[in-house]
Amino acid sequence: MRKLIFIFMALLLMPWENCVLATEKTAIDIYSFSKAYSLLKVPNVTLERGEFESKQEFEKRKKEFIENNKEKTAPFYIEIPIDFRAIPENKNYNIDTKTFSFYIPMYFSSPYFDLPESRRGKNAILLSEIERNAGSYDGESAFGVKKTVNRIEKEKAYIFILSEKNINKYIVKNIYHFIKINIKNIDLDRAKFLKDNYQIVLKVKPEKYKDYGYIYEKIDYKQPTLSSPEQVKSIERIINVSIMEIMIFSGSGELIATQKIQ
Fold first, then answer.
1. For each of the chain's 262 residues, which pLDDT tens digit applies?
2. pTM above 0.85, yes or no
3. Taking CA atoms, which of 52, 91, 133, 175 is between 20 and 30 Å from 145?
């Protein structure tokens, strides 16, 4: 699903540094994770030189492939669902300084076990988490014990932040890691309205991460046992990106502030 948001912001609320004010309506085409992931499947392929292909022919084919898929690897906008239960309690508003803090929870995308310890727990943003019952069947153990086995399917979707260097100054730890954005001059009534009532959209650029490419999928299976008669299929899908811009909206869709990440 794609979502088109039209933005008009007539008032600057003194957000953080380098904030860009939208002075006219702007169409923002927001991609779903599945759309962005499917687009990146093709340019994620690694081309190999054919046995009867000259070096010149291969370089020409590779160049054409990159040009044809340039649009698929272009920056895109994606909405970040906020789990307000994960936000540090009573940490949104400072009434003395009239500063409102917005939080984006961060996670550890487990497929990348080659990450340094310093990046554990703060390398990814969770976009969706689904668990569904896919049916059941009658199973029997080697000892003849019969059990009904439930099939469970779990899916998680992440964006993996390729480099935290540019975003590092916004990362804080309060038990867990968050991207924290402070906006000043928010009065009390507006702060009460914004609490648990805001949306965040990121402009991101797909990036290749080592040999993983632009995207990565990890599938695990857990077989049923007598004590836990469940057959579980777990899928984690990841898009590797760098963050270019953070946009904050109220729950009613009003653009509050936007920050370009250099």
1. 445 444 444 333 333 444 333 434 456 788 999 999 999 988 877 788 888 888 898 888 888 888 888 788 899 999 998 877 778 777 888 999 999 988 888 887 656 666 666 666 678 899 999 999 989 888 877 677 788 899 999 999 999 988 767 778 888 887 788 888 888 888 899 888 888 888 899 999 999 888 788 999 989 999 988 788 899 999 999 999 999 999 888 877 788 888 888 6
2. no
3. 133
Q: What size, in residues, is the chain? A: 262
20 torsion bin: left (phi>0), alpha (psi -120 to 50), beta (else):
beta
254: which 2 tokens?
A: 């009003």
Identify which of 200, 232, 228, 210 has the alpha carbon closest to the alpha carbon of residue 219.
232
Burial class (CB in 10 A: 0-12, 13-18, 19+), 24: exposed
| Identity of the residue numbered 86 | A
Integer Cα distance of 24 and 193 in angstroms: 25
Residue type, 259: Q
Amino acid making up residue 35: K
In DSSP notation, 38-91 reads HHHHTTTSPP---TT--HHHHHHHHHHHHHHTTGGGS-EEEEE---GGGSPTT-
- Return d(Cα 259, Cα 262) in angstroms, integer: 9
